[in-house]
Design brief:
- With about 160 residues, the protein is an alpha+beta fold.
- The protein folds into 2 domains: about 80 residues, F0F1 ATP synthase delta/epsilon subunit, N-terminal (ATP Synthase, domain 1, Sandwich); about 45 residues, no CATH class.
- The chain has 3 helices and 10 strands, in the order H-E-E-E-E-E-E-E-E-E-E-H-H.
- The strands form 2 sheets. Strands 2-1-9-8-5 form a 5-stranded mixed sheet, with no helix packed on it. The chain has a 5-stranded antiparallel sheet with strand order 4-3-6-7-10.
- The protein is elongated.
- It comes from Paxillus involutus ATCC 200175.
- Belongs to the ATPase epsilon chain family.
- This is ATP synthase subunit delta, mitochondrial.
- One of its GO terms (molecular function) is proton-transporting ATP synthase activity, rotational mechanism.
């Protein structure tokens, strides 16, 4: 019985402790500080942006100010940065991690990234076709696995270019 009183006593004190941690909706005027970083280059360094859309492993998501802190692995896809005035910049990334920190900070670490307009749909289709031939061919298992990864990236890039 004393354990039950202890739990009920603890439950009465929890709401006041959590009241300080309540989260609300992002305000339109709120910004998030974005750092988009490659091993050899920083594309953004603590830049104030309105929203960032990412291709997370768990699904596509938009990140606004006051987003819940989290770590998201990225799959090959587009990182879209929406700045003030609804101007948008898009990069295709091969994968990486997005870290949403408390205090409206977002860090995206990727191995490779390039502006989406730097890619050609025709070249992407040709490279995808070549990678798929290797996966269906008589090569070594290692070559087939590498080609499958390459094909996955080209498929994501083709999808991104098709929906520009």
């Amino acid at each position: 019985m004393s354990a039950l009183r202890l739990l009920s006593s603890a439950a009465r004190h929890v709401p006041s402790a959590l009241a300080l941690q309540r989260r609300g909706y992002a305000e339109v005027a709120d910004k998030i500080k974005l750092s988009l970083v490659l091993p050899h280059q920083a594309i953004f360094t603590s830049a104030d942006v309105v929203q960032v859309n990412i291709s997370a492993a768990s699904g596509d998501m938009g990140i606004l100010a006051n987003h819940v802190p989290s770590i998201e692995p990225l799959r090959p896809g587009v990182v879209e940065v929406i700045e003030s005035g609804n101007t948008s910049k898009k990069w295709f990334v091969s994968g990486g991690f997005a870290n949403v920190h408390p205090g409206n900070k977002l860090t995206i670490n990727v191995v490779e990234a390039a502006p989406l307009e730097a890619f050609s749909l025709e070249a992407t289709r040709a490279n995808l076709s070549e990678a798929l031939k290797v996966t269906a061919g008589n090569g070594s298992e290692e070559d087939k696995i590498k080609a499958r990864i390459e094909a996955d990236v080209y498929e994501a890039l083709q999808h991104a270019l098709g929906s520009k």
